[in-house]
Design brief:
The chain has 25 helices and 22 strands. By secondary structure, it is α/β, with parallel strands linked by helices.
Length: about 675
């Protein structure tokens, strides 16, 4: 295609395509008659009949083309969907015109007798005409697509394109190969796929060959002079990703990866989503099955409130709740900047959802700046907004900081939760889900104990109201604020050392989207009073994570970056547990979610009195008193009691002191 022709074709708009269609529809009947009869004079002999046929065929086709959406498409980006539309339009219009064509020949109508020309045409005319129309309208439109490809090709950077080998020939790999071929200006050229599915070996996908299995990576990198490897396996577990990364490192070729399914969130894979391999990819577990229909049925059209909406978990809750199309999403938080940022993002998400045509009035996003420690204001907010579903994610979670500031852990995690629960109870909230932590199990810290007391508050409300008030325990969340992962990254960027508290310390880890899946399921599964826990797989040694992160940064542990052991901090323990001793736990309808059912006596009988004592100790900033009350509320607390105060020695009378002084001076 010449540059001038490409430039002209790219200027065509839908009104021009309609004019071209009129010309095509006017000429194809004459061409069809000639092809059928192989006689140039046939057109003049059947001119009257052709005029009648052309008139009604043109009107029928234009009307149906318009209603099918022929003139609402941007044909420069035509794809398989547009080809299907053209095929559908040709079939439907040909069927309609054939019906009219043969209907005119029905003897009872007498059309042939009154207008002989209407029945003088060959019976195969509608079929031949339909094929010609399909080819003509399709050729014109895909000429615009070819012109766009030609334009992109001319924009390709000078020199050789970077040769890319794609690991994974599934939907993600195919989409990447298609994007690379359609956008040569990106400077990427897919030279092949590697996939362990032998059924794909030897085939071509978007004209890119599947060369063999992933075990041939080193061989193919050398053979094809590969400059970059892309791992396109969003559903593969972390063990597979780790093996692929090790092979890429052995071949000394740069590697990038498509994010996992949780990160993609059902979006289309594109080149823009490629990123370097991260620690989350190496720890990736099998995808958690999620019954989205049940969650959507629960939240669609509801008024939903999320506390801590600007935090790591709270903001992700807002994103995923919004996809369920609630009528109102209340984003409550104490920090105005974080709430402002997430609300801006959510409003953009709503606009995109409306453009996608999900139907119904768009969800309303309402930011609320409030402190959950202010009971009266919180009660007023709940009374005014009347939420039906509440996700309580607001909490202090940093163990060492809360050890040094126990009053904050009490006022926010315990008393704040009590305020939210009481406001929810008074406002008639139907479902309440509190975010807890595995540190609430046999806690060794004030933070863990405070979350355990918060679980008891939710449990008591469930028993009193008979509503679905539940808690969800999580392990550590990768990438959240205060995460060890972010600390390691900063230490590596600074040149080290990477500090680990103990060589045998282990933790359970999950991604933020995975954690939020569990929260949403808890809202569906909960009957009232349960504590839900995800099957979080095997615990991970923190020192192993540090080594992986150093290697992913292109450095060598012990040579480029040192790992230093600093000793355990106050409140920490070597490993986390999932269930409180004495809890009864079992499976749920979800294969990776367990429920821990508390006994009825899990809430102490003097609970309110102890909460009052805890509030008084926090108000006076008395850390020792807080620990003493926590031991009474959480008997399994593994934190030592403060030493009992020694009785003060009684001072001798003033006269005795004077006598002793005189005796000493003579």
């Amino acid at each position: 295609m010449s540059p001038e022709l490409a430039k002209f074709v790219m200027t065509l708009r839908n009104r021009h395509f309609m004019a071209i269609d009129v010309a095509i529809l006017a000429l194809t009947p004459l061409l069809a008659v000639y092809l059928r009869m192989d006689d140039l004079a046939a057109g003049s002999r059947l001119a009257h009949a052709l005029l009648i046929y052309t008139a009604y065929a043109l009107v029928v086709r234009l009307v149906l083309f318009y209603r099918a959406g022929y003139y609402q498409r941007f044909w420069r980006y035509a794809s398989v969907d547009e080809l299907a539309l053209l095929t559908y339009g040709a079939l439907v219009t040909t069927l309609a015109i054939t019906t009219i064509f043969y209907g005119l020949r029905v003897p009872e109508l007498g059309v042939c007798a009154r207008v002989p020309a209407a029945c003088a045409l060959p019976r195969s005319l509608p079929l031949i005409d339909g094929l010609l129309v399909f080819m003509g309208t399709g050729a014109v439109r895909y000429a615009a697509r070819l012109a766009e490809i030609y334009r992109r090709g001319r924009q390709a950077p000078p020199g050789d394109l970077k040769r890319v080998l794609i690991l994974g020939a599934g939907e993600s790999g195919a989409a990447l190969a298609k994007d690379m071929r359609a956008n040569p200006q990106l400077g990427l050229k897919p030279v092949g796929f590697l996939d362990d599915d032998e059924r794909k070996h030897g085939v071509r996908i978007h004209d890119v060959p599947v060369l063999g299995g992933c075990h041939q990576l080193l061989e193919k990198v050398v053979e094809l002079d590969v400059a970059q490897v892309v791992i396109a396996m969003p559903s593969a577990p972390g063990t597979v990703i780790r093996r692929m990364v090790e092979r890429c490192e052995a071949s000394r070729v740069p590697v990038r990866i498509v994010p996992g399914l949780d990160a993609l969130l059902h979006g289309r894979v594109s080149i823009g989503q490629l990123r370097p391999v991260q620690i989350e990819d190496l720890l990736r577990r099998d995808p958690v099955p999620t019954n989205l229909d049940a969650v959507q049925d629960l939240l669609r059209g509801k008024r939903v409130l999320v506390t801590g909406g600007g935090g790591s978990i709270g903001s992700e809750l807002c994103r995923q709740v919004l996809r369920c199309w609630p009528s109102l999403l209340l984003v409550l938080g104490h920090g105005e900047n974080s709430i402002f940022e997430i609300v801006q993002e959510l409003e953009a998400q709503v606009r995109a959802m409306v453009e996608d045509g999900n139907g119904g009035p768009p969800p309303v996003i309402r930011p609320i700046i409030a402190d959950i420690r202010m009971a009266e204001r919180l009660a007023a907010i709940f009374a005014q907004q009347r939420p039906q579903v509440v996700f309580h994610a607001a909490a202090h979670k940093h163990v060492p900081l809360m050890e040094g500031n126990p009053a904050e852990a009490v006022t926010n995690n315990v008393l704040g939760t009590r305020n939210v629960v009481e406001a929810a109870t008074a406002a008639g909230v139907e479902r309440f889900v509190m975010i807890s932590t595995d540190k609430a199990v046999r806690p060794t810290s004030i933070m863990g104990a405070s979350k355990r007391v918060a679980e008891l508050i939710v449990r008591r409300a469930a028993l009193a109201t008979k509503r679905s008030f539940v808690a969800v325990r999580f392990g550590n969340v990768l990438g959240s604020r205060g995460s060890v992962l972010l600390t390691f990254k900063k230490q590596i960027a600074a040149g080290g050392p990477v500090t680990v508290t103990h060589p045998e310390m282990t933790r359970f880890f999950m991604t933020i989207p995975e954690a939020v899946h569990l929260v949403l399921h808890a809202a569906v599964l909960g009957q009232g009073g349960e504590i839900f826990m995800l099957d979080m797989g095997e615990p991970v040694r923190i020192v192993d994570m540090a080594r992986d992160l150093i290697e992913l940064s292109g450095l060598r542990p012990g040579r480029d970056i040192e790992i230093a052991f600093t000793g355990m901090r106050p409140g920490e323990k070597l490993f986390e547990e999932l269930f409180v001793p004495g809890e009864s736990y079992g499976p749920t309808h979800h294969p990776k979610i367990f429920t821990a059912g508390n006994n009825g006596d899990a809430v102490p009988p003097a609970f309110d009195a102890e909460l009052a004592a805890l509030a008084a100790a926090a108000a006076s900033n008395d850390g020792d008193a807080i620990v003493q009350v926590m031991h009474r509320l959480v008997p399994e607390l593994q934190r030592p009691l403060p030493p009992a105060p020694t009785p003060a020695r009684a001072e001798p009378p003033r006269q005795e002191l004077l006598r002793e002084a005189r005796a000493a001076t003579g």
